[in-house]
Design brief:
Blueprint (H helix, E strand, L loop, with lengths): L10 H27 L15 H6 L12 H4 L4 H7 L39 H4 L8 H9 L1 H4 L13 H13 L9
Bound molecules: heme C.
Heme C binds next to α5 and α6.
């Protein structure tokens, strides 16, 4: 004889018992799982994304790496090699006395002269704003290594000369472009 839920007097006891028993299993399994696994909050990320400090510090800064001083190299510098290297400047500059400005100003007697030295050239604000200072050897070294680093906003669209020896040669050549070349430092 099949019992229906109406006829079984213990039906609701069984239902409530089943629900309680299921709850009990859920609680104990959660409890046991936690005993077995020990979940822990980490204090730090396990995968640390390494960003070198120098990279963050240098981001946006003009001169990322130290520029080798030019003084010690000038004594042994070769103006003729500098003249050859300065071919890449000649797209924008003339070097002769009284020569015309092109994309950039004429460079006769630029060393020792004040910055933005050509009266006829229309300089960037950055360089024009430095007019009260003179171009000395070390300034030219920094400018030629990294034009934008030395003169923010410069119009000189030139990446720079990375070799210190080549900069020394070019600066020795620039020094020779004068009626009275300046003494070496
Ligand atoms: C793409 C063109 C271009 C090239 C290549 C270039 N220059 Fe220039 N240069 C300029 C311009 C433009 C200026 C003016 C910058 C300003 O007003 O900010 C300038 C300015 C200068 C100045 C400062 C002049 C002053 O009166 O204060 C010097 C020095 C100089 N350049 C040297 C060089 C040398 C050396 C080279 C080659 C190694 C070179 N430039 C390559 C365009 C150029």
């Amino acid at each position: 004889m099949a019992t229906t839920k109406q006829s079984d007097p213990l039906f609701w006891n069984k239902v409530v018992g089943a629900v309680l028993f299921a709850g009990l299993i859920a609680m104990t399994s959660g409890f046991i799982a936690e005993l077995l696994v020990h979940p822990k909050k980490l204090k730090e990320n396990v995968y640390v994304v390494a960003v070198p400090e120098a990279a963050t510090a240098a981001a946006g800064a003009g001169e990322p790496k130290a520029i080798e001083p030019i003084g010690p190299l000038l004594a042994g510098a070769n103006p003729a090699a500098g003249e050859a290297a300065a071919k890449k400047c000649a797209a924008c500059h003339t070097f002769t006395k009284g020569g015309p400005d092109r994309v950039g100003p004429n460079l006769w007697s630029v060393l020792g002269g004040h910055r933005a030295h050509s009266a006829s050239f229309s300089y960037s604000q950055g360089l024009a704003g430095m007019k009260d200072k003179n171009w000395d050897y070390e300034d030219l070294n920094h400018f030629l290594a990294n034009p934008k680093g030395f003169v923010p906003g410069t119009k000189m669209a030139f990446a720079g000369i990375s070799s210190a020896k080549e900069r020394a040669d070019v600066i020795a050549y620039l020094r020779s472009l004068s009626d009275q070349p300046k003494p070496l430092p």
